[in-house]
What does this fold into?
Amino acid sequence: MLDEKSKYKIELERTKKEFKKLQKELEETKTIFKIKVEARTKELRELAENLDEKVKERTKELEESRTALMNMLEDAEESRKALTNVLEDVDEARRRAEEEKDNTKAIITNFADGLMILDKENKIILINPEGERFLDVNAKEVEGKILGALIKKPSLKKLAELLSAEETKEGLFRKELSFKKPTERVLEVTTVSLAPREENVVILHDISREKLIERMKSEFVSLAAHQLRTPLSAIKWTLRMLLDGDLGKITEEQRGFIEKTYRSNERMISLINDLLDVTRIEEGRYLYKPVLTQIENVVQFVIDSFKEKIRRKKIKLEFKKPRKKLPEVKVDVEKVRSAVNNLLDNAIRYTPVGGRVTASLKCGKKEIELSVKDTGVGIPEDQKERVFTKFFRGANVMRMETEGTGLGLFITKNIIEAHGGRVWFESEENKGSVFHFTLPIKKS
Amino acid sequence: MPQKILIIEDDEFLRELITQKLVKEDFEISEAVDGEEGIKKIKEEKPDLVLLDLILPGIDGFEVLSRMKKELTLAPIPVIILSNLGQKDDVEKGLKMGAIDYLIKAHFTPGEIIDKIKAALK
It folds into this structure.
């Protein structure tokens, strides 16, 4: 019999063994588990490290992105500031332009001359109050319309005709236009073209008053000349008839006196002519009718008119001109003839018997030059400054010859300068003088 | 037969001077002191030549010339303007209106005027 106690001991042993086996298994499991945990922990650690790296990287990227974004934000801010400035400037410019526009409008509105602006199709963009007055039109009625179509108004018709004339293509400068209705008016028309939009500004300057004064002066001068000439003619004729013996025989002594009186009278008649010329030149900036001319012909004409005087004084006169025909010059023929005449007259008059006068024509690039050289008495050094002034006559010539008005060179200078030329001279007392003038060649 | 010259000139002295000279040259002279008388005498006497001043009392020389040229019988009579009005425009106007010459009194001697008259009558 196994006793209960021994059964229990065997059971206990078995249980102990079981328990030890279990314990061992547990230990093993624990070890495996421990290894697994270690492995897992290692894995986790690695993962953690990886993640850490990745995070660091990502953080770095984000940082960079953030920096970039910040820069962009800064730039945007700069741009915004700049744009604001630009907008401010634009605003300022716009305001100034408005001001300018208002100023310009004020100027145009109050301008003393008439202004009309035409676009490239000759449509009237604008006409100012003076323009309305001069042309007797209403801005509202004509603005926006084509000038050429407004033929019902005679003033506009005339203006349109002037503007469309062939010579106007280059622009007009102070071209005269006159109207009779509703009031007599004379305008100077000048055109200025504004390149960018091909607009034309037409400026109308009222010279009615000047024209009236010119006419009055002309009439007065004409009348005065006539009144002065009448008694002088009577004296001239009487003295001539005395000298010709028509009123009876005269002695040699009487002849001498009468001749001097006759010459004195002639001088007065000549003076009146010169005064007439002078007033005409001074009042007229405008040359009578400039036409294209061969200057050689003008000089030749004048030379021919002195043939008798040259013969009497036994003066040798030479005319030197280039072989090729000179280019034409645009001149008032009568006035230029007068200028040449004055130079030749002086040369012949102040050159003693047997002397020599040479007229030469030279052609430059932009101008033609005439020189008149003489072997005459010349001009004293201290008087050279006054040569071109009114009524000047050299002291040496006044003693030599009493005729001569002292206006010739003054008139010549005015004529040549009115043509856009120059006058000058060289002279040596008792040797002779050379007088020059130039006339511009118009480029066609 | 002596040729008849009609002189229309308002200044007595000048008229006398020129008349004296013309008479010496064997011309027959007729005188008028103003435009109206001038026209009347042209019509009545039909001179061979007219010496015409421009500044005259009443109607002026241009008017006389104009009326002359309008009448067929008077138009062919040669007219020499003898005036002290000497502006370019006046000369052009006179010549355009039919005067055969325009002489400024102060620029011509009586002898020279006679020469011009003789030349015109040839």
Remarks:
- The CA atoms of residues 85 and 104 of chain B lie 7 Å apart.
- The interface with chain A takes residues 11, 13-14, 17-18, 20-21, 24, 55, 83-88, 90, 104-107, 109-111 of chain B (CB under 8 Å).
- Chain B has a mean pLDDT of 92.
- The beta strands of chain B are 4-8, 28-32, 49-52, 79-83, 101-104.
